[in-house]
Amino acid sequence: MGGDDGSDKDGSADSSDADNPAPNDDGSKPEAPPTVAPPGGKFTYPRAQFTRFTNGGGSRSLGRALKGYVSAAGGGAGAARRMPHSTRVASGVAGLASAVANDGAEAALARFNLQDLAGRPAAEVLEAVAEVICPDGGTIDESIARDAMLEAIAEVAEDDPGAFDELSTDQLDAFLCDVITRSVVTKVLNEIGTNALHGSASDADFREAERITRDFTQGRVRDALGNRFDAETRPTQTEIDRSISEVYADTFDMLGAVLETMQ
């Protein structure tokens, strides 16, 4: 009590004491204070730009938000790695589509032990496939993957294309594109749209952001898919897995490169 407070004559703290703290009474070294992450994390900028868009900031703000997200996630490959379950589900859909094109609906569904459903309505069959490759429950990414597939199935049901074994290659390719698009959009908005949901943005503003993002993303997914799964090819599931990972990475890269030019 009343001893030296560790300050020098001008009142500043002794740096040697700060760098070499005194040991505890039992001789052990004191624990270092925990490192505190900066508020907002690495998505601070894209979240701010997204919120700005939903509060009337214009389309360029949305473009900056999406470009900023891809950059903060580590580029296209880094963003794709944040979606392991979504890529797995999309690979399952791509494998199904490839098998239908090469071996027929019944043989393709046998991969999931669902061959007896081949002649049933397309939406019903796809729902059964969804229960196999993306069952309910699990992590946020698993939920995103499942929701993306179920929403894409709902679109199929609205179009009422008939029996599953009557689906064309183009229809299955469009379904795969829709699954990938919805998973990407949901993932991105889930990570950068938080502030907007709790701010002054209206539901209509958020839905408009979602619509624009989906329109741009769908075009990028189509470009990334290209002719990777032509009916003339017979890729292995390993090759399909690799291709789908590349599709996600390419989609994110194209989003990051294009969207800042939005007017």
Assembly state (oligomeric): single chain
Q: Give the rounded overall mean pLDDT.
A: 82
How would you spell out the order of helices and strands? HHHHHHHHHHHH
Q: What class do helices, strands and sheet pairing give?
A: mainly alpha
How many β-strand runs?
Answer: 0
Intertermini distance: 67 Å
Query: Quick one: biggest sheet?
Result: none
Q: Which blocks of ≥5 consecutive residues have pLDDT under 50?
A: 1-22, 28-40
Q: Over all CA atoms, what is the radius of gyration?
A: 25 Å
Could you say which overall geometry the principal axes of the C-alpha atoms support?
elongated
Strand content: under 5%
Question: How many H/I helices?
Answer: 12
Into which percent range does the helicity of residues fall? 55-70%
